[in-house]
Amino acid sequence: MTEDTSKRGGSRPGAGRKKGSSVYGEPTKAVRVPESLLATVTELLEHKKKQTSDAIINHPGVFLPALDGPVPSIPFYGASVAAGFPSPADDFVEKRLDLNELLINKPASTFFVRAEGESMLGAGIHPGDVLVVDRSINASVGKVVVCALDGELTVKRLRSKEGKLVLSPENPDYPDIPLNEGAEMVIWGVVTSVIHNV
Predict the structure, then answer these.
(1) 80 assigned to active site
(2) Rounded distance, CA 129 to CA 195, Å?
(3) Over the stretch 17-60, which tens digit does the pLDDT of each residue have?
(4) What's the predicted TM-score (pTM) here?
(5) Residue 110, domain CATH
(6) Has residue 51 been placed in a domain?
(7) Which is more confident, 41 or 144?
(8) DSSP 129-187
(9) Looking at the domain assignment, is residue 90 inside a domain?
(10) Residue 40 placed within a domain
(11) Which of 11, 44, 115, 191 would bridge 144 by S-S if both were Cys, CB 3.0 to 4.6 A apart?
């Protein structure tokens, strides 16, 4: 009797650990490290992980999503709301909407911070808005980022001007902030959503 091995091995859809679910809150990559340097590399990674996490967690203006406990869901209607002329509304609830599911892709790498000032009005960020920030997204040119610049938090768009990176506001009343070599700047994450009260 021959054993059927066609159902063994290989990748299975939905199996394994989700990308970004590591302790670093982002995808990881395997690398070969000489045995003599393993302890040094491990220590460096632990220090970096703790340094970034501590700075974010211990900052008074940063809030972390609750990862445990019941999450309320809210009725989500299948009909769209017309911003122009009114249209008849459908009389049914399409499903229940979990706001965490809508706003947070990677809970382990997400935090919230409240915006101050008017430098980002053009990006739809107003004073008092809550920003949803994901540390696992690559902070590339064009993204709106939250960063610590010389110890102070700021939210700006990362741009390249004349071959140099700048933190650019979305309000003509505010100047660009050039990222000089002497500046101490750490990008904490990319803004993925803005929670704005009307």
Answers:
(1) no
(2) 6
(3) 444 444 454 566 777 878 887 777 777 776 666 656 666 666 66
(4) 0.60
(5) 2.10.109.10
(6) no
(7) 144
(8) PEEEEETTS---TT-EEEEEETTEEEEEEEEEETTEEEEE-SSTTS--EE--TT--EEE
(9) no
(10) no
(11) 191
Angle (CA) 125-127-131 rounded to 5° is: 50
Phi/psi of residue 94, nearest 5 degrees: -70, -45
Considering the candidates 106, 109, 136, 156, report the single residue annotated as catalytic. Answer: 156
CB 114 within 8 A of CB 125: no
Q: Which of 106, 109, 119, 193 is catalytic?
A: 119
* Residue range of the domain that includes 152: 62-69+105-195
Tell me, what amino acid is at 129?
D
Q: For residue 176, with 0-12 CB atoms within 10 Å meaning exposed, 13-18 middle and 19 or more buried, which class applies?
A: middle
In a domain, 78, yes or no: no
Given a contact cutoff of 8 angstroms between Cβ atoms, the answer to whether 115 and 155 are in contact is yes
Count of domains observed in the chain: 1
User: Is residue 95 among the annotated active site residues?
Assistant: no
Q: Of 130, 183, 190, give the one whose Cα is nearest residue 158.
A: 190
Provide the residue type at 53 as one letter: S
